[in-house]
Amino acid sequence: MPDRNQFAPAEESGEEPPGDWMHSFHDTISNSVYQSAVWFDSFFSHDDSLQQTPQTTARIRLGWEPRSRDLGEFDTRFRVKLKLPHFKNKLDLILSDDSDDELSQLPLETSLKPKSEINDEPFAAAVRLIHTNTDEKFTDTRLGLSGGDIFLKSRHRRHYSWQDIHGFKIEPSVFYFLDDGLGARLLLEYDYQLNEKEQLRVNYSVRGSESYSGIRWKHGFYHLKQIANDRAAVLGLLVEGERNGENGFLIDNYTLSYRYRFNALREWLFFDIEPFLEWPDEADHKTTPGIALRVEGYFSKQ
Predict the structure, then answer these.
(1) Phi/psi at 275 (nearest 5 deg)?
(2) Which residues does 103 contact at the CB level (< 8 Å), separation at least 6?
(3) Do the Cβ atoms of 53 and 302 come closer than 8 Å?
(4) Distance (Å, whole) CA 93 – CA 110
(5) Is the model's pTM score more than 0.85?
(6) What is the CATH number of domain 21-293?
(7) Domain segments of the chain as ranges
(8) Structural contact between residues 134 and 164, judged by C-beta atoms closer than 8 angstroms
(9) Where does the pLDDT of residue 159 fall: very low under 50, low under 70, confident under 90, or very high at 90 and above?
(10) By C-alpha distance, which of 100, 210, 79 is closest to 146?
(11) Between 238 and 43, where is the model more confident?
């Protein structure tokens, strides 16, 4: 089955002009993150002769997401991951300005946030221990801090595929926040490969926590298309809501979006154009059109 992640950055293969300001900017960010990883990893080595090379990746995204009657919505995101070689690359450090990570989002879900949540995401830092990492299985545990709350999270992921056109993923996880208590989440996903360039995807997640009543759920329906090596698009419909809570069964929002992503100017630089329609419950499910324009840079060094 073709690569599932059609939005991953391409491998850097060419040399950029050394005097170019974009090249200098990319090198400055990459080197800064790399030196931080070397410094942090050195605490776990008692012999300078055993110094190893860490692997670092960083992602910075800037976005403008105007909606109907509200044109001033801007969004910025960053994420830094430091892989520590003295733990045989089984341990890494993740820093992010969102609560990280997949607890409330589906794979391929649009990164659009409800108006009430924009610029309200806490800073998160976590140490992740990877127990199993193969093509079929992945298990990890994270211990960290998010919005001033200490958390522990463990998840297990299994992939199944057959006949090169069907894929299925199951991902249960449990988490505990010191303030919010115990919680759990289950993600189910099915992929159908139409051809080498196109795929249909359906996913569903439910999660619950001691911090709120009821069960939060999300359904996602997507059509993925790889237009070229440097361009791809996703047409998606997302439905989210709650059940068994104080209000019984409730649909919070419908979102229909078309995300066009392309690589331009540099191999590490990506652009998104995403027109969308929302039908939020807080607006009595009235149609709310909008568009998201984003630029995203990937920085890595090892």
Answers:
(1) -70, 145
(2) 153, 173, 175, 183, 185, 207
(3) yes
(4) 25
(5) no
(6) 2.40.160.40
(7) 21-293
(8) no
(9) very high
(10) 100
(11) 238
